[in-house]
Design a protein that fits this description.
The longest helix is centred in the C-terminal third of the chain and has 32 residues. The protein has one domain: Orthogonal Bundle (Ammonium transporter fold). α1 packs parallel to α4 and α9 packs antiparallel against α10. The protein contains 16 helices and no strands. By secondary structure, the chain is mainly α. The protein is globular, with a radius of gyration of 20 Å. InterPro entries: Ammonium/urea_transptr, Ammonium_transpt, NH4_transpt_AmtB-like_dom, RhesusRHD.
Length: 425
């Protein structure tokens, strides 16, 4: 179907209006791509030195293998619009993405932007699987994880997506990217079980390189601006104002999350400033503002970020107490933070004149802005649906991989370290 003659609801299905829009989308995608480096530095800095290279290789695998499968079928299942096959559950068409000379500008701009989101969702999982996963098994999972991601992406952003038709709000991927990635990580860490001797020692394992972890946080912070601001899907018309609002709400939220991280560490760690607390506070707040970044005022962003950072820090501590071994804190940050982000949209979102610019026609004001319970109900439904879908599909794929080729490295290799075993370093 000619997308230029078909109108969908939601910013990700708008036809690109101008060269400026395409330039904005591509530039934002380039910025988002640098988040792979951020995740790599954060994760490699958080694990022991004997596994640093392995973590970086897994992040490269996410782009290589995840990007390939997204081009083959992930984009088609998310944003395909061939009639009569496209339906509320999945898209159909645009497999093995290609475009004619006339339409290649907007087709390829949109595809590259969406591919940067899809590979990010897979990268999130690698942190939860760190230090005990076979690389060849992870390669297979990174390809299969495209299936886990692409259907929720269709429900929320795609043509005829059933949650989109109900008016769900998710501007920049709190659900399909962060919740799906974080929940997949939760399943993975439970299937893998904790690292050797992880809970026989009373103290938390030391970071291999706190400096690298902090540098990774800064790169993710930078990438998040492209993530959120680029999700206006252009700067023509009034969209540049939405992009500016997204930038300010994102920064506002992250400063609040940083304050939470510093204060909670100062209190819990007895007057010391723990690097992990700071990182989790900032990243949790960034996830928290993702769903509604273009639809809230700065002070609302502060509140959302404050709660997002608190949810993440508390969640990471609770998961650790239950011996769920998540080396980088991806479950607390992305799964719990993503769920809060979706719910926050049901509380704080504003359906002002700018919402029309994104064709969010079915969206209502959040509960705290006089919109009643409808929007909060839709957001809650999305959270429940994505949770059930991700837990089931991730478990299915991971168990198949575990049965066929084994998921966890042998104990002696885990003790020796993946860098020397799998990379000869």
């Amino acid at each position: 179907m000619d997308e230029g003659n078909f109108t969908y609801h939601g910013s990700r299905n708008l036809k690109i209006r101008s060269h400026d829009d395409a330039t904005w989308i591509l530039t934002s995608a380039f910025i988002i791509f640098t988040m792979q480096s951020g995740f790599g530095l954060l994760e490699s800095g958080s694990v022991s030195a004997k596994n640093e290279v392995n973590i970086m290789v897994k992040n490269a695998v996410d782009v290589i293998c995840g990007g390939l499968t997204y081009w083959m079928f992930g984009y088609g299942f998310s944003f395909g619009d061939d009639e009569p096959y496209t339906n509320p559950f999945c898209g159909w068409g645009k497999f093995f993405v290609k475009a004619s000379e006339e339409e290649l500008g907007w087709v390829y701009s949109k595809f590259f932007f969406q591919a940067s989101f899809a590979t990010t969702a897979t990268t999130i999982v690698s942190g939860a699987m760190a230090e005990r996963t076979k690389l060849e098994s992870y390669i297979v999972f990174s390809m299969l994880n495209t299936f886990v991601y692409c259907f929720p992406a269709h429900w929320i952003w795609g043509p005829k997506g059933w949650l989109q038709e109900m008016g769900v709000i998710d501007i920049a991927g709190a659900g399909p990217v962060h919740m799906v990635g974080g929940l997949s990580g939760l399943v993975a860490t439970m299937v893998l079980k904790p690292r050797h001797n992880r809970y026989k020692k009373k103290k938390m394992p030391q970071m291999g390189s706190p400096t690298n972890a902090l540098l990774g946080m800064f790169m993710l912070w930078w990438g998040w601006l492209g993530f959120n601001c680029g999700s206006t899907f252009g700067i023509s018309g009034l969209k540049w104002k939405l992009a500016a609002r997204s930038a300010v709400s994102t920064i506002s939220a992250s400063t609040a999350g940083g304050v939470v991280g510093l204060l909670s560490s100062y209190i819990v760690k007895k007057r010391t400033f723990d690097v992990a607390y700071l990182i989790n506070g900032v990243l949790g707040s960034l996830v928290g503002i993702t769903a509604t970044c273009a639809m809230v005022h700065p002070w609302e962003g502060l509140v959302i970020g404050l709660i997002g950072g608190s949810v993440t820090i508390t969640g990471v501590a609770l998961l650790d107490r239950f011996h769920i071994d998540d080396p980088v804190g991806c479950v607390g940050t992305h799964a719990l933070g993503g769920a809060w982000s979706m719910l926050a949209a049901g509380l704080f979102a504003r359906r002002d004149t700018f919402a029309k610019e994104l064709h969010l026609d079915a969206v209502q004001n959040g509960l705290l802005n006089g919109g009643g319970f409808y929007q909060l109900g839709v957001q809650t439904l999305a959270v429940v649906t994505l949770t059930v879908w991700t837990l089931f599909t991730s478990f299915f794929f991971l168990k198949i991989i575990d049965l066929v080729m084994g998921l966890r490295v042998p104990l002696e290799e885990e003790i020796l370290g993946a860098d020397i075993v799998e990379h000869g370093i």
